[in-house]
């Protein structure tokens, strides 16, 4: 089986977990491959993914071998697969733009970025690197709020002719302008804002859908999240949180029986606790009415290692993008975007999204009606 040649923009905790996972499952078989939604997609296993290019801005990563850089500070995620062999791929300097929040420039360098003292690449430089590496897919792992940086790498993907997976809450796939451009160039696009395998948003969605199906009136709810990685430190700048809060809130609102007034729903990152490192703790509260207008409430605490939780989804997204490339299918990938992301162009329930992605993965693909519907919501 050929390799899926992948480039990564942003070599932080999520990229570290993804690359560790590629190697961790190399010696596994389907019977003991715990933690995967799919062992194979189109014949491709996790170990068939190969990182051929990477971009970062931290001096502790730029210039290093990728498989060494993923363990460098400020990365702090769980190490579940160490002693990786050298990849032979050096980390390139990336574009900074708005990739660093101002309050992080003067923070303790143990916890934040230290920009490398080397020239930043131009768009032409990045496009050239992508082409020379043979990359087929570019993953965006920019920090939350990196609007300019995300658009920069999306543009580079378009110019290089590589599929783009937008793991961050900057709206590319769900923006008709960008969706149309990827469709016109017949380049696959998955986005926006990756869901965790079993995280706060997917759990909140499932519970909200359960309320609806069981006839329970949801009156108000909140989701509060704390963590100690650079993502949570970055999000102390509330100005950068607008798209993240919108993405997470809409993911839950889209499955309510009746949309809640804004004053009755609060969803978003809440605080940075350094000693939590990559551990994310989520608190969900839901208040509603049962039969006879009798009140009820539900409270849940969820603790997960944040980055491996998303890597299990990214591994599937990469393989779905590869399938689209093999089939000659461009534009936003409906099923993968709906199932893997919080803010796709069109929201579906998780059951519907699951069926869509399974059909996408199957050899049959989409039927004629679905392709027609798919074109219409892409802005065709």
Give a description of the structure.
By secondary structure, the protein is an alpha/beta fold. Helix content is 35%, strand content 19%. The chain is built from 12 helices and 11 strands. Strands 3-2-1-4-5-6-11 form a 7-stranded parallel sheet, sandwiched between helices. The chain has a 4-stranded mixed sheet with strand order 8-7-9-10. The protein is globular and about 65 Å long. Mean pLDDT is 92; it is low at 366-380.
List the helices and strands and how they pair.
Layout: E1 4-9, H1 13-24, E2 49-56, H2 66-69, E3 91-93, H3 123-133, E4 137-140, H4 147-160, E5 163-166, H5 176-184, E6 188-190, H6 200-213, E7 217-227, H7 230-234, H8 242-253, E8 265-272, E9 279-289, E10 295-305, H9 306-327, E11 331-332, H10 334-340, H11 350-361, H12 368-377
Parallel strand pairs: 1-2, 1-4, 2-3, 4-5, 5-6, 6-11, 7-8
Antiparallel strand pairs: 7-9, 9-10
Helix pairs in contact: 1-9, 3-4, 6-8, 10-11
């Amino acid at each position: 089986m050929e390799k899926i040649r992948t480039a990564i923009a942003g070599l932080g905790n999520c990229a570290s977990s993804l690359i560790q996972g590629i190697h961790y499952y190399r010696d596994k078989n389907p019977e003991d491959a715990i933690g995967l939604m799919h062992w194979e997609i189109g014949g491709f296993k996790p170990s068939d993914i190969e990182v051929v290019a990477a971009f970062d801005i931290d001096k502790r990563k730029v210039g290093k071998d990728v498989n060494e850089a993923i363990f460098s500070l400020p990365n702090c995620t769980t190490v579940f697969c160490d002693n990786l062999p050298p990849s032979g791929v050096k980390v390139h300097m990336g574009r900074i733009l708005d990739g660093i929040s101002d309050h992080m420039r003067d923070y303790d360098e143990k916890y934040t970025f230290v920009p490398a003292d080397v020239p930043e690449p131009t768009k032409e430089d990045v496009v050239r690197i992508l082409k020379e590496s043979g990359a087929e897919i570019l993953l965006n792992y920019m920090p939350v709020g990196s609007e300019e940086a995300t658009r920069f790498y999306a543009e580079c993907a378009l110019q290089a002719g590589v599929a783009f997976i937008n793991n961050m809450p900057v709206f590319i796939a769900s923006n008709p302008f960008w969706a149309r451009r990827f469709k016109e160039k017949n380049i696959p696009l998955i986005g926006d804002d990756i869901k965790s395998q079993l995280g706060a948003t997917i759990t909140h969605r499932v519970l909200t859908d359960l309320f609806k199906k069981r006839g329970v009136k949801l009156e108000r709810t909140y989701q509060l999240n704390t963590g100690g990685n650079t993502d949570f430190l970055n999000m102390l700048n509330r100005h950068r949180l607008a798209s993240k809060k919108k993405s997470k809130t809409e993911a839950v609102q889209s499955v309510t029986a009746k949309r809640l007034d804004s004053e009755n729903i609060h969803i978003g990152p809440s605080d940075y606790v350094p000693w939590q490192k990559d551990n994310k703790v989520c608190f969900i509260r839901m208040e509603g009415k049962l039969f006879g207008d009798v009140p009820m409430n539900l409270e849940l605490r969820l603790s997960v290692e944040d980055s491996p939780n998303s890597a299990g989804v990214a591994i599937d997204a990469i393989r779905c993008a590869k399938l689209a490339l093999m089939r000659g299918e461009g534009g936003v990938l409906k099923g993968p975007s709906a199932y893997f992301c919080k803010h796709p162009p069109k929201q579906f329930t998780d059951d519907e999204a699951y069926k869509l992605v399974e059909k996408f993965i199957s050899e049959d693909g989409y039927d004629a009606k679905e392709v027609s519907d798919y074109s219409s919501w892409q802005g065709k």
